[in-house]
């Protein structure tokens, strides 16, 4: 079928709106009509050419929501008409990783997904004879996309697509890191470094689980008001702290954070996030993705004395199980999404959303199909 899509032909070049040909679903796969997609920093990172694993030409996008319009042979978990969120982290419930219950990093389709292909090793997108790669297994910058059924979460039908698409990445990454990775306990002292599309969701996750002190750290004072609305109790601008930021935060928390979250992707900040944690038990969760080749460091004694360094991908969420629950939390008013969606555009306006992101003027832009 012919599908309108924003195609990334080359690194560093703007996306181009094209008509592409999409082949239908094969065994175990579903065809989804996307209704909305968020535009995330990771799409921008890949488009910029800085992502060493970036493949071109490709259809980017990994934060979508839509409706199943066709299913291939053998599909049992979803049917035509179901509302779904595509998952860049699938959940097969059968691989060693899924069965371990220790990780959400299902490996069932990992190798082909990393090559920009469907599990049978082919791409379903092309323009004439030119193959177009899939991206993160989702390719949501297209009106229609094909995914394996293990990579779609079925959600309730009254949830608005243009809001819950954000649960496909940013919301789940932030809230999940609090709930599933760190398992933050009520009464905790939490420090969140970076109050963007991810960090604000960490803040609201911390509030949801009953943290007492939620300190937000950002060099952009413009983030303070929104973070307060999401539950931040104290704001710290590192540029206004006279001396050592770590000491300042340890003093503010009277001994150190129970949990800290790095939501920037800066290896120097990752060190500060670990070292502001409480001796003996403080845990620091790295969410930010640092540039290729970067390394983290600290004095090993920081770990010997009980601080814990962890990472979190997609908030540690098991997509098919946890994403529908997060949609419920939104629909029940337990979490907010609407204020974070600062811009909404048609597919033709997608280029502008990257400009807004570069200027730090948006938190999340959504393309509504
Ligand atoms: P964003 O740009 O919206 O937010 C980053 C914030 O950090 C901004 O408000 C900025 O002002 C602030 N900041 C920058 N440098 C700072 C510094 N030195 N000290 C304090 N604040 C600083 O980005 P985002 O969309 O929230 O994404 C954050 C990171 O999370 C990115 O690296 C992204 O790639 C990553 N990410 C990770 C996952 C995962 O599963 N682990 C998923 C999605 C995104
Ligand atoms: O299993 O090795 C693997 C792949 C894990 C991918 C996790 C991605 C998490 C962070 C990337 C940012 C997503 C928008
Ligand atoms: Zn699996």
From TrEMBL:
<dbReference type="InterPro" id="IPR014183">
    <property type="entry name" value="ADH_3"/>
</dbReference>
<dbReference type="GO" id="GO:0004022">
    <property type="term" value="F:alcohol dehydrogenase (NAD+) activity"/>
</dbReference>
<keyword id="KW-0560">Oxidoreductase</keyword>
<dbReference type="InterPro" id="IPR013149">
    <property type="entry name" value="ADH-like_C"/>
</dbReference>
<comment type="similarity">
    <text>Belongs to the zinc-containing alcohol dehydrogenase family. Class-III subfamily.</text>
</comment>
<dbReference type="GO" id="GO:0080007">
    <property type="term" value="F:S-nitrosoglutathione reductase (NADH) activity"/>
</dbReference>
<dbReference type="Pfam" id="PF00107">
    <property type="entry name" value="ADH_zinc_N"/>
</dbReference>
<protein>
    <recommendedName>
        <fullName>S-(hydroxymethyl)glutathione dehydrogenase</fullName>
        <ecNumber>1.1.1.284</ecNumber>
    </recommendedName>
</protein>
<dbReference type="GO" id="GO:0008270">
    <property type="term" value="F:zinc ion binding"/>
</dbReference>
<dbReference type="InterPro" id="IPR002328">
    <property type="entry name" value="ADH_Zn_CS"/>
</dbReference>
<dbReference type="GO" id="GO:0005829">
    <property type="term" value="C:cytosol"/>
</dbReference>
<comment type="function">
    <text>Has high formaldehyde dehydrogenase activity in the presence of glutathione and catalyzes the oxidation of normal alcohols in a reaction that is not GSH-dependent. In addition, hemithiolacetals other than those formed from GSH, including omega-thiol fatty acids, also are substrates. Also acts as a S-nitroso-glutathione reductase by catalyzing the NADH-dependent reduction of S-nitrosoglutathione.</text>
</comment>
<dbReference type="InterPro" id="IPR011032">
    <property type="entry name" value="GroES-like_sf"/>
</dbReference>
<dbReference type="InterPro" id="IPR020843">
    <property type="entry name" value="ER"/>
</dbReference>
<dbReference type="GO" id="GO:0106322">
    <property type="term" value="F:S-(hydroxymethyl)glutathione dehydrogenase (NAD+) activity"/>
</dbReference>
<keyword id="KW-0862">Zinc</keyword>
<dbReference type="GO" id="GO:0046294">
    <property type="term" value="P:formaldehyde catabolic process"/>
</dbReference>
<dbReference type="InterPro" id="IPR013154">
    <property type="entry name" value="ADH-like_N"/>
</dbReference>
<keyword id="KW-0479">Metal-binding</keyword>
<feature type="domain" description="Enoyl reductase (ER)">
    <location>
        <begin position="12"/>
        <end position="367"/>
    </location>
</feature>
<dbReference type="GO" id="GO:0106321">
    <property type="term" value="F:S-(hydroxymethyl)glutathione dehydrogenase (NADP+) activity"/>
</dbReference>
<dbReference type="InterPro" id="IPR036291">
    <property type="entry name" value="NAD(P)-bd_dom_sf"/>
</dbReference>
<dbReference type="Pfam" id="PF08240">
    <property type="entry name" value="ADH_N"/>
</dbReference>
<keyword id="KW-0520">NAD</keyword>
